[in-house]
Specification:
With 128 residues, the chain is of the alpha+beta class. It is built from five helices and four strands. The chain starts with a helix and ends with a helix. Its cofactor is pyridoxal 5'-phosphate.
Length: 128
């Protein structure tokens, strides 16, 4: 339907905005952007793991998934997260909303890094 085609275009536009805003904060993306509904965010340069990010954002009801990225030493401790845009687009989010989503994700990582300073590098200690 025309409505679904427009929805699909909006999902992709939202993902592109999310990717660009994350890059503007200095974050590394696996493909330097996106051409679909997924942003694969490499957190290794921050010193924060994908598992910790997933755990942290779960606590505030933000769903993203830990995801292995090229160069990870272990699939058990992935260095990235996968962030999709379909669910929020379905709720009516547009590009300007995804700029705010990126800001919130950035703030979450900053909080996570401060928590990690106190808890240590291990995920089990971070989650405690």
């Amino acid at each position: 339907t025309p409505e679904f085609k427009e929805y699909s275009r909006q999902v992709r536009r939202n993902a592109v905005v999310l990717a660009e805003k994350l890059k503007s904060f200095g974050y590394k993306l696996v493909t330097d952007g996106t051409e679909n509904h997924i942003v694969l965010w490499d957190l290794r340069p921050t010193g924060f793991s994908g598992g910790k990010a997933q755990s942290l954002f779960d606590e505030v009801s933000i769903t993203l998934n830990k995801n292995a990225v090229h160069g990870d030493k272990s699939a058990m401790n992935p260095g990235g997260v996968r962030v999709g845009t379909c669910a929020l687009t379905t709720r009516g989010f547009v590009e300007s909303d995804f700029e705010r989503v990126a800001e919130l994700l950035h703030k979450g990582i900053q909080v996570g890094l401060k928590l990690q300073e106190k808890s240590g590098k291990k995920l089990k200690d971070f989650e405690a």
